[in-house]
Amino acid sequence: MRVEIFYATFHPGCLTVTALDEADVSRTETQQLAVEDRNSDAKTVAVFRKADWSRRLQVIASAHEGSCAGPVVATSTRQVEVPTSGTTAVYLDLRAEDLDGDGFVAASASSRGTDCDDADAAVHPGAPETCDGKDSNCSGDEEDAPSKPGFYVDADGDGHGDLSRVLRACVRPAGTVLEPGDCNDNDPSVHPAVSELLCDGRDEDCDGTADDDFRVGAACKTELGCAGAWACAAKGSGAACNSTQTPVTWYADGDGDGLTGTFKSLSCEAPTGAKSVAEDCDDASRFRGGSEVCDRLDNDCDGLTDEGGVCATNNWTTRTLWSTAWEAVTTYAQGKAWLAGPGGWLAHVNGAGVADFSTACGTTSDWTVAWARPSDGRVFVGTAEGTFASVHPTSSGCVMQTVSGVPGTVTSLVGYERSGTTTVYAVTSTGHVLRWEWREPVSTPPPVVVATQLAANLRSIHGLGPDTLLAVGAEDFQPGVAPLPRVYRLDVASGQWIREELPADVGTGYLRGVSVVDGALAYAVGEHGLVLRRQAGTWDKLPPPGGAAAPELLDVAAFHPNAVYVLSNKSGTFLHRFDGTAWSEPYPQGQVLQSLDAISPREQWAAGQGGTLVRWGPP
Hints:
Blueprint: E1 2-8, E2 14-21, E3 28-33, E4 41-46, E5 56-64, E6 72-81, E7 89-95, E8 150-153, E9 166-168, E10 176-177, E11 219-221, E12 227-232, E13 239-242, E14 248-252, E15 262-267, E16 315-320, E17 328-333, E18 336-340, E19 346-350, E20 353-356, E21 367-372, E22 379-383, E23 387-391, E24 398-402, E25 410-418, E26 421-428, E27 432-439, E28 448-453, E29 457-462, E30 470-475, E31 484-491, E32 496-499, E33 511-518, E34 521-526, E35 531-535, E36 538-542, E37 553-560, E38 563-568, E39 575-578, E40 583-584, E41 593-600, E42 603-608, E43 612-617
Parallel strand pairs: 1-7
Antiparallel strand pairs: 1-4, 2-3, 2-5, 5-6, 8-9, 8-10, 11-12, 12-13, 14-15, 16-43, 17-18, 18-19, 19-20, 21-22, 22-23, 23-24, 25-26, 26-27, 27-28, 29-30, 30-31, 31-32, 33-34, 34-35, 35-36, 37-38, 38-39, 39-40, 41-42, 42-43
């Protein structure tokens, strides 16, 4: 027989032809045919009957999918009578569908193949299985994919699963999540996405450390500067820095007398310059605290003043030094002072001794103001017209300088020392503030410059440094209006002089003297018995000496609310003392006193007409 086999629309993996003897079906012969790589073809096979076979045969053509071991996807059978001689032809037609050309026949009613999606060449038996939503290898589903993702059992429903309970599947099983890391799958408040909101010894964020957001155990310092470690607070509300150290009360030197007495802080760390003991019983005054001395103050804060015989040798003394009228007296150390007057009169007092410096700067200058430098006693003097000079107590030389273009008269002088430079300030009746910067050694006299001009007739200036400078006088330039008292303060930050607010009942007249005790306390005096006190930046009015018959007050030296000394024009008295409650007249005088100065409550100086020099203090 000549067997002609035809196939189309698929590519068999294997093609066989089987001959079967119908008289004895156990007699079969099968031949495998070569298959070319194309989807349509025709094959011709010669079949020879065996000698012991009957002439009636079945010829069966079979197409296998993939290989000869693969399933039969198409068959064609013919019954043939083998001729006794010659050849007979048999035609067999094989039909199957492989529409996507992947070598696998569609699994359908009309096709007996295994391709479960004959429209997708990537889907067929043996194809790599992935979790992509389709059965790529036609196994029935995609669950045999070798790289299925892991889903983690989320028993508490917090969105994070137990790492030890993983289910691998292409489709997420119910009760599972993709995010692992839940270290307590029975508590929905514990999982990696939560913050450590409570300091409670639990690892809420599952990072392996309990309360790590609170730095439990880490070194810290309490608000009082005590070394400790972070620990959970009560009820887990947070962490607190716990320390076993006991904070110490620290005291600072508030008044600059070298003794501590002002509460600074409660801390385990010592502030700069502070001590753990209060040495000063009154740290508001640099003249109180420590041992008792003769100064009319209760230095040791025991309720008694000048007890223990400390004033046994202190007294008031009056001396007459020549016949001039001393316009200014200035002291710089105990028992030491300068006197200045008209005609160039200049004298240095050192205890009982007096040195005449009147010829040092010539005899033509009428000195009206003076200030002496505490460090070495160098004096700075000035005339009403604006001539300034400086003399050292151990030298006969004189350095002079004149300021020009400033009308009015110079009325007051003060200075201070900072960083090797001496700065001298003067004020005038036309409101000018003059400044003389002095740095040793002096080869060329530094100029006196106009720092500013204020809207007032200035009569006095005082301060312990630039941050405490006050200038006083009156506003008197409005015709027909009585002079109005004025006080100005230098604002160091801006460099401007700021007018200060005075009490509403301050009245009229000139303020003629000012004395700064410290940055918080100052006093000013003036006409009509006006006495003003500045406390913590606010001015108030005090009762005047003499009551209703108050004299004109010319100058003031203050050291404490209980130690305020004032110079007046009251004939026969001139000197007044305020003890914080009442006024007294400690040392009546017959001569007119014109100037008052002191650097400590332990000693006061006053000078005036007839060469008079008055002093209270130790010998």
